[in-house]
Amino acid sequence: MKKVEFTAAPVSSSVMPIVFDSSLCVGCGRCASVCQVDILLPDAGKGNHPLVMYPGECYYCGSCVMACPVEGAIRLRHPLMNQTRFVEIEK
Amino acid sequence: MEYVWPYANEMDREEQLFADVLVLGGGMAGCYAAIAAARRGKQVILVEKGATVRSGAAGSGFDHWESACTNPCSKVTAEEIANAYIHEQDGYSNGIAHYIECEEGWHRLKDMEAFGGKIRDTEGEFAGADFRDEKTGLLFAYDYENKFTIRVWGSTFKPALYKELQRQGVTVCDRTEATALLVKEEEGKKRGIGALGMDVHTGKFKIFTARTTVLAMSRPARVWLFDADQVGLCEFRPTQSIGSGHAMGYRAGMEFTMMEKSVQGEFSAAGRSFPPYSTGNNHNTWYAATMVDARGVEIPYVDRDGRELKTVRERYYPAKGQKFFLKGGVIDNPKYEYRGPETLAFDELMRRGYQLPFYADLSKMPEEERRVIWGMMVGEEGKTKIPVLQNLTRRGFDPVRHRLQSYGTGWQSAAFLPQERQLFGAPGGIFHDWNLETNIAGIYAAGDQLYASDCCGFAAATGYYAGRKAAASCGRYTLETPEREEILREKERLYAPLFVEEGMDWRELNKAIAKAMQNYCGGVKNDMLLRQGLELLDSYETDFVPRLACRNPHELMRTHEVLDILTVSRLILQACLLRKSSSAPLCFARSDYPETDPTKDDCFITIWQEAGEIRSRRVPKDYYGDVKSGYEAHNQDYREEAASYEKG
Ligand SMILES: Cc1cc2nc3c(=O)[nH]c(=O)nc-3n(C[C@H](O)[C@H](O)[C@H](O)COP(=O)(O)OP(=O)(O)OC[C@H]3O[C@@H](n4cnc5c(N)ncnc54)[C@H](O)[C@@H]3O)c2cc1C
Fold first, then answer.
1. Is A86 inside any structural domain?
2. Is the Cβ–Cβ distance between B346 and B409 less than 8 Å?
3. Which atom of ligand 1 is nearest to the CA of B236?
4. Which terminal residue of chain B has fewer beta carbons within 10 Å of its beta carbon, N or C?
5. What range does the domain containing A68 cover?
6. Distance set, CA B538 to CA B54, B253, B514 (Å)
7. Rg (CA), chain B
8. What is the mean pLDDT of residues B127-134?
9. Are residues B233 and A34, on separate chains, in Cβ contact within 8 Å?
């Protein structure tokens, strides 16, 4: 089989499911290694958080957050249209 | 901005691996299959497209283990519940697999506990609650009288299974997509000899040679529903489970049934619905939440006779004179016999002046019922710990102080159009015998890949069973060398999109297929439409598949998925053409054959390909015979093992 060079560029999506806090992330890569959809790619720089290369493919299962050793280093958020409304119970 | 691909480029490399038992798909079913075979001393390879530790529909968790009829507290028998399911689904049910689930599901749960998964309330978190058995610490759901559905900490399960696979010495090939089955013709009969696949990081080609094979790659999706912007939200099951197992099976000559069945959409958080379990409702995870209307007036629960229930407690017990009731996964609107407590029907609520929107109001429930719904069930259920429990809590939601809105009339929290369809609620799949063996000798199937499958207990029990049968028949088969020509053909098919420049993105094709299926295989079908649909898909195959282009193995995997979706869509259209009548239990309406469920078609219609032709046969719905005696006749060798689970 002839070889072709592999390249990648972030595929645009109207949503950003996953946000990292660079000041907290230790760059362990656990989030990327558990993601069953494989939307995160390791960043070449040591200690950096992975890149969200395929945000539109996110299944919103939360396994990346569950695997993260540092509270708050990675956050998952559903698109605005999916934020369920709740109301105060009047006394 | 372009990035350097972070993984090695191995598209010019091949790796050959050998196994006694090859398992394709590492979800619940695949993991249990691999463990069963490994326990029997077999060399096992497990091929998983994602990462086994959290992959599959149950990767992040699940909260109900259904039909655990042999647990020590259960007041029902496996026979009773299996037969109830068969009857409930008018015989379009998988009696074999359901019986296996009812009989062995509890055994698999005890295995899970041994592997480190949490199946009981060991800390007494819910001590004294109605749903807790004080002796065993097991927590029950739905029917507190009969105790056959168990509430579990499903978020602990996949990591525990993964650890056990490693402990058992199973070779786990993560990030590897299986793409084709290897089949050999022997004395006019087909036999499975392995599979082909690709590393989705490096592009390395893999050849798996095995004595027996277990298919556990879930079911088709993204057939009618597709959102190019939010691909991962457009279906209920995981992004990468789109029916590859069905597609490779169909290409290899495997027999399917009930593929004409599809239901009006129930879940697509990319559009019409909200994320599963994130809205106020009273089904499944949220059963039996107190519901109120816009004014805060409580919505009554009624028993099957329409008698209003006065207390929360009564929502969890069968009606007077009823032995048990059914709730859960595939149970939508059960027959009178099995119908449990439910809120008043929507139409009746409207008539009585209840006002939309409705809300779930847990503040009105006993404290432990509230805590078990919000905190355990919402938390352990798939996709809830972070996206629902954590996020809503962060936004300030407190179930004592707030009501959570409901957006529809049922647990789907959405209203889909008739042509927006899904394979949901016990859809079609692989046809099989009492050994879970397919029509291709040496190939077994389990979990969501089977016809009329439903849940985790089903997946675990059939997975283990298939693994056990695949291990037992290993001795009959030798390892074969696959034909070089076949390998080269598959390599050419797989890598082609990497060589196309400025071609078409996989999403464009997926979207076109989904639109075609909505138009030609929608809510009402007829021969003309179905044929035109097939013609259109044929033209996609010849004119547009060769134009598909991508840049790396990840995108190549997504492209392969659409090729499989194309195959599966044709399988569905062809299966629809074979049933010349309408059917209520199959959710199948035809304008050219409006007669509903005529006796002449009261059977399974199967479909497979042979020498380029579509073949089909009719099989009586009770082809498997009496479930209890059928099971016993085929499982004498399991009796001793079964007995070891019966204690405690
Ligand atoms: C959000 C959610 C909540 C649920 N809650 C419950 C519940 O509370 N109780 C319950 O009983 N059931 C529940 N279910 C259903 C249950 O999770 C599934 O029925 C069950 O997990 C199916 O198991 P499986 O092994 O057949 O399929 P899966 O667990 O989905 O596994 C299939 C595996 O095959 C892999 N795969 C697919 N294609 C390929 C390929 N080409 N090559 C290699 N690998 C491949 C996938 O990556 C996946 O890991 C829920 C489902 C969802 C989505």
1. no
2. yes
3. 53
4. N
5. 25-79
6. 36, 19, 14
7. 24
8. 97
9. no
Q: How far is A90 from chain B (nearest CA, A)?
A: 9
B328 Cα distance to chain centroid: 13
Q: Which two tokens stand for residue B344?
A: 């008043």
For ligand 1, the distance from its centroid to the CA atom of residue B243, given in whole angstroms, is 11
- Best B62, B230, B491, B502 member to test A by mutation, with max A CBs in 10 Å, is B230
Under an 8 A CB cutoff, do B53 and A34 touch? yes
Residue keyed to tokens 């697999």: B97
CA atoms within 13 A on the CB side of B265: 30
Q: Are B404 and B280 in contact (CB under 8 A)?
A: yes
Which residue, B219, B220, B248, B200, is CA-closest to B22?
B248
Enumerate the β-bridge partners of residue B208. Answer: B17, B195
Domain count, chain A: 1
Provide long-range contacts, Cβ within 8 A and 24+ apart, for B297-302: B297/B354, B298/B361, B298/B364, B299/B343, B299/B344, B299/B349, B299/B354, B299/B358, B300/B343, B300/B344, B301/B341, B301/B342, B301/B343, B301/B344, B302/B341, B302/B342, B302/B343, B302/B344
Cα Rg, chain A, nearest whole Å: 16
Structure tokens at B557: 């995997």
pTM over 0.95: yes
**Residues of chain B numbered 472-501 and touching chain A (CB < 8 Å):** 491, 495, 498-499
Show me where the domains of chain B are located. 284-405
In a domain, A15, yes or no: no
Q: Do A58 and B232 touch (CB under 8 A)?
A: yes
CA–centroid distance, B419 to ligand 1, in Å, is: 25
Shortest CA distance from B492: residue in chain A: A1
Share of chain B above pLDDT 90, in %: 94
Tell me if A89 and B280 make a contact (CB, 8 A cut-off).
Answer: no
Residue B409 pLDDT > 70: no
pLDDT digits (tens, 9 = 90+) for B574-631: 999 999 999 999 999 999 999 999 999 999 999 999 999 999 999 999 999 999 999 9
**Strand ranges for B6-141 from DSSP E:** 14-24, 44-47, 64-65, 139-140
Does residue A17 lie in a domain region? no
From the CA of B448, give the closest atom in ligand 1: 26
User: What tokens were used for B266?
Assistant: 């129930």
What pLDDT is stored for residue B571 in this prediction?
Answer: 98
Q: Is residue A14 part of a domain?
A: no
Residues B232, A87: C-beta atoms closer than 8 Å: no
Average pLDDT over residues A68-76: 97
The amino acid that residue B53 corresponds to is: V
Nearest-CB residue to A14 (from B229, B239, B554): B229
ipTM confidence score: 0.97
Amino acid at B466: A
Report helix, strand or coil for B528. helix
CA B223, CA B243: separation in Å to the nearest integer? 10
Give the residue whose CA is nearest to atom 31 of ligand 1. Answer: B27
Which helix H or strand E contains B464, and what residues bound it? Answer: helix B456-473
d(CA B5, CA B7): 6
